[in-house]
């Protein structure tokens, strides 16, 4: 089914935890705002409607893979209907730090079927650009360890029982997530960014891609005098 044309544009970033995608999308946000563009930012798992339920479920380790997936889908659906879609209809450039592909990768590794996941998120439109920040596992792990005192339980896939060692569990879980991303790269036409490059080089490439594919002048806010 052909998606209706909307005046706004949707840009998503995907990648492993520690890939640096959040740093890059935040820099894009600052850049577009500085140009005077109408821009809106949204991040994964941030809806108030399910935040408490997610936190309680994670803390008590009550979530099955299917429940986990459905909660994230509810979170995304709420943000999509309340914020992302209205902003696209309003002619904004919408930036998403993670999109449905995060669920396709993580939830698939946790045992949910790929067709079921794609149907579950079938309401979401395809981004105009999806940047996939490709990074070796050890680099991603090193960045996370350097940035904080410990790895998070679920980002390390500790709920899957791969290994009692959190770093080893991270390598196994995120390695499987990476395999899912690599499979999706061609299927969904990801724009691949070498996330081992210096931050300014990555940002330069990302901006070049955006400028080549989106007419930014159309999104600059008119100043009233």
Can you put this structure into words, describing what you see?
- The chain has a 5-stranded parallel β-sheet, sandwiched between helices.
- Helix 1 crosses helix 8 and helix 2 packs antiparallel against helix 3.
- The protein contains 8 helices and 5 strands, in the order E-H-E-H-H-E-H-H-E-H-H-E-H.
- It is globular, with a radius of gyration of 18 Å.
- The model has no long low-confidence stretch (mean pLDDT 90).
- It is an alpha/beta fold.
- The protein has one domain: 3-Layer(aba) Sandwich (Rossmann fold).
- The protein starts with 8 loop residues before the first strand and ends in a 12-residue tail after the last helix.
Task: Give the gist of this structure.
With 225 residues, the chain is of the alpha/beta class.
């Amino acid at each position: 089914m052909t998606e209706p044309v909307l005046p706004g544009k949707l840009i998503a970033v995907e990648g492993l935890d520690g890939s640096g995608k959040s740093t890059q999308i935040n820099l894009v946000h600052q850049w577009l705002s500085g140009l005077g563009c109408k821009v809106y930012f949204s991040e994964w798992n941030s809806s108030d409607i399910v935040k408490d339920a997610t936190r309680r479920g994670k803390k008590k380790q009550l979530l099955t893979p299917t429940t986990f997936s459905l909660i994230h889908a509810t979170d995304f659906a709420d943000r999509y209907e309340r914020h992302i879609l209205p902003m696209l209809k309003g002619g904004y450039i919408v930036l998403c730090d993670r999109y449905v592909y995060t669920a396709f990768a993580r939830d698939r590794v946790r045992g949910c079927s790929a067709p079921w996941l794609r149907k579950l998120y079938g309401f979401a439109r395809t981004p105009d650009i999806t940047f996939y920040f490709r990074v070796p596992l050890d680099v991603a792990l090193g960045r996370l360890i350097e940035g904080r005192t410990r790895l998070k339980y679920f980002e390390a896939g500790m709920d899957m029982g791969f290994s009692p060692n959190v770093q080893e569990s991270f390598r196994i879980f995120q390695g499987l997530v990476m395999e899912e991303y690599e499979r999706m790269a061609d299927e969904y036409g990801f724009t691949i960014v070498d996330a081992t490059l210096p931050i300014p080089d990555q940002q330069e490439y990302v901006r070049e891609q955006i400028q080549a594919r989106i007419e930014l002048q159309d999104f600059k806010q008119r100043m009233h005098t």
